[in-house]
């Protein structure tokens, strides 16, 4: 855990594997091992230890949630929902995970209910649920409805790069390019490595007839996209 906490995830794994062999009934060990894999985006390796952790103690904080998120990352959305049903249903993170899995399955009405439920649970605690709802509305072709949702997030969390980015996108897709630019400029300032923020800002500049100003952001978006 000392290695894990200082960011040496790969170095933590062999010790956690040995711990899981020594204490095979300890859900905390399996959870830590799974999270160490997942943090390295090794979701296939994370699946088994996280499944074991959820199976051993579904009341352990985030055990079933982390298992569900690994399944989601593997595009196993039905299985992710089943894992979330074993988790704490009053958690905004669980509600958000459920919404995202339902959206991925094309079950938009159910997804929207869960996004809204998660936003109400998390309001004032974390921006992720509000951002999730706003982005969902944009993806559903309802950008105008997303604007007040994302604006509300920014009133509470003005330094949320994701909220700035997606509010800029919603304004841009609603034909309000000029209004989108301050939000997208702020998004780039907060998250200079975001290819999406650079690309959206470049598009907003182009719509304002500022092609020369846009070009460095097109270049940054291309470079950052290649680096991923």
The CATH topology of the largest domain: Serine Threonine Protein Phosphatase 5, Tetratricopeptide repeat
CATH architecture identity of the largest domain:
Alpha Horseshoe
What structural category do the secondary elements indicate?
Answer: mainly alpha
Report the C-alpha radius of gyration, rounded. 20 Å
User: Which sheet architecture does the biggest sheet show?
Assistant: none
Spans of at least 5 consecutive residues whose pLDDT stays below 50 are none
Mean pLDDT: 95
Can you describe this structure?
By secondary structure, the protein is mainly alpha-helical. The protein has two domains: 1-86, Tetratricopeptide repeat domain (Serine Threonine Protein Phosphatase 5, Tetratricopeptide repeat, Alpha Horseshoe), CATH 1.25.40; 122-228, Serine Threonine Protein Phosphatase 5, Tetratricopeptide repeat, CATH 1.25.40. The protein is 76% helix and 0% strand. It is built from 14 helices and no strands. α8 runs antiparallel to α9 and α11 (161-173) runs parallel beside α13. The longest helix has 17 residues, at 211-227. The protein is globular, with a radius of gyration of 20 Å. The two termini are 28 Å apart. The mean pLDDT is 95.
């Amino acid at each position: 855990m000392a290695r894990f906490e200082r960011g040496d995830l790969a170095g933590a794994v062999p010790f956690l594997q040995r711990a899981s062999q020594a204490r095979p009934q300890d859900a905390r060990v399996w959870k830590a091992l799974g999270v160490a894999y997942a943090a390295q985006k090794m979701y296939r390796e994370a699946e088994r230890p996280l499944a074991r952790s959820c199976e051993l103690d579904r009341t352990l904080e985030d055990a079933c949630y982390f298992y569900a998120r690994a399944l989601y990352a593997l595009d196993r959305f039905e299985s992710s929902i089943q894992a979330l049903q074993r988790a704490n249903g009053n958690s905004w993170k669980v509600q958000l995970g459920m919404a995202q899995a339902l959206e991925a399955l094309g079950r938009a009405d159910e997804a929207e209910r869960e996004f809204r439920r998660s936003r109400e649970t998390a309001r004032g605690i974390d921006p992720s649920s509000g951002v999730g709802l706003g982005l969902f509305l944009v993806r559903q072709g309802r950008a105008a409805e997303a604007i007040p949702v994302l604006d509300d997030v920014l009133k509470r969390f003005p330094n949320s790069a994701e909220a700035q980015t997606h509010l800029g996108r919603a304004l841009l897709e609603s034909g309000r390019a000029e209004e989108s630019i301050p939000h997208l400029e702020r998004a780039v300032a907060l998250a200079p490595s975001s290819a999406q923020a650079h690309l959206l800002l470049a598009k907003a500049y182009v719509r304002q007839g500022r092609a020369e100003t846009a070009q460095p952001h097109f270049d940054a978006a291309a470079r950052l996209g290649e680096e991923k």
